Amino acid sequence: GTIPTEIALLEELRILDLQHNNIRGTLPSEMQQLTELRKFDCISCTNLDGSLPSWIGKLTLMKTLGLTENKFEGSIPKDFGKLTDLINLALDNNLLTGDLTVLNDMGSLRNLYLEENGFTGTVGEAFFENLDNLETLDLSDNNLVGRVPINLFSNGKLRILDVHDNLINDFPDSIVEMQETNLEFLAIHGNPIENEGFPSTIIFLTNLAHLDATSIQIRGKMPDFLGDLTKLTYLFLADTTFEPGSIPESYQKLTNLKDFSVKDSARSGNIPAWFSKLSKLILLDLDSNKLAGPLPEALPENLKFLLINRNLLTGTIPAGLINSTLSKFQL
User: Fold this and answer.
1) Which one of 1, 23, 159, 243 is least enclosed by Cβ atoms within 10 Å?
2) Cα separation of 44 and 114, whole Å?
3) b/e for 90-103, b at 16 or more Cβ within 10 A?
4) How far apart are CA 178 and CA 252, in angstroms?
5) Is 15 helix (H, G, I), strand (E, B) or coil?
6) Spatial CA neighbour of 128 closest among 118, 140, 139
7) Which of 141, 161, 140 is nearest to 151 (CA)?
8) What percent of the chain has pLDDT over 70?
């Protein structure tokens, strides 16, 4: 059904949670009378459509606005900028377009989800420069161009940054000048980043647990310094254009790794025996390289997925591999 206009009679309403219902139509303008509203969630209402109404800017006490997975289209109204107390904003999985400058003065925002829309514009040094409290920022699957802005790392509060599948072509080269960051999750995959070498500034993201740089067109060697990011649990460097070479020895220090992929990254040499020491490893993806020689005798004790197909491996399959508890083995 639709949201009834009579909802405006609930003048003292503070929380309106309609998520995961089959609600259609537009947001009724009568809702602007709900001036005490602190939280409005219509996540996965699936059929809300039309433009985002500018009158939402009148609900200035709002802390949380969730409109994920609907069919809203058009740009974000300028009046959204009046929601200066807003902490959580989720507009992901809609049909929204236009630029994001209207959000730049919403300094209370901590969690901002804008992924899977059609937002455009240039990501530059002034991008979201006033959003000093951001902890989560997801801009993935849009049409943003430019470089990952240095100011996103300057406040030390950002924990999750996901910009995958945009048109971003550069990564900042001066994180070293900033204070230590708390970034734990960085996804830059699927962007036309074409640095001469892997961004060395990533070494200063010492709390990083998740790094996905799949399908970025970076020249130079696969970086040894990633072995110093010992909190990494997820490292994907698949489908990259690194110079041919072996898997860096320094990666044996990544003892917290659970998921590791260097698929189709021009790796050669033997499969390192030290993989067996990465006891937390669950996924090991070495598919589509030029790895040669025999398989190692021992595997990580918790390994469930081993992908070593399309290589140059020889010899027999070790008994330990035959008797393992692998869920998936591609040879």
Assistant:
1) 1
2) 14
3) bbbbbebeeebebb
4) 28
5) strand
6) 139
7) 161
8) 98
Confidence bin at 154 (pLDDT 50/70/90):
confident
Please report where in the chains the tokens 């649990």 appear, as a residue.
Answer: 233
**In degrees, to the nearest 5, what angle opens at C-alpha 96 toward C-alphas 93 and 98?**
140
Q: How many helices (H) and strands (E) does the chain have?
A: 1, 25
3-state secondary structure of 306: strand
Averaged pLDDT score across all residues of the chain: 93
| pLDDT for 326 | 84
Identify the pLDDT of residue 69: 96
Contact 72, 51 (CB under 8 A): yes
Distances (CA, A) of 181 to 85, 128, 161, 270: 24, 17, 12, 36
Task: Give pLDDT tens digits for 190-240.
Answer: 999 877 788 888 988 999 999 999 998 888 999 999 999 999 999 999 999
For CA atoms 162, 168, 171, 172, the dihedral sign is negative
Q: Which two tokens stand for residue 148?
A: 């990952």
Amino acid at 95: L
Reply yes or no on whether the pLDDT at 176 is more than 60: no
Residue of 27, 19, 20 lying closest to 2 (CA atoms): 27
Q: How far apart are CA 12 and CA 262, in angstroms?
A: 55
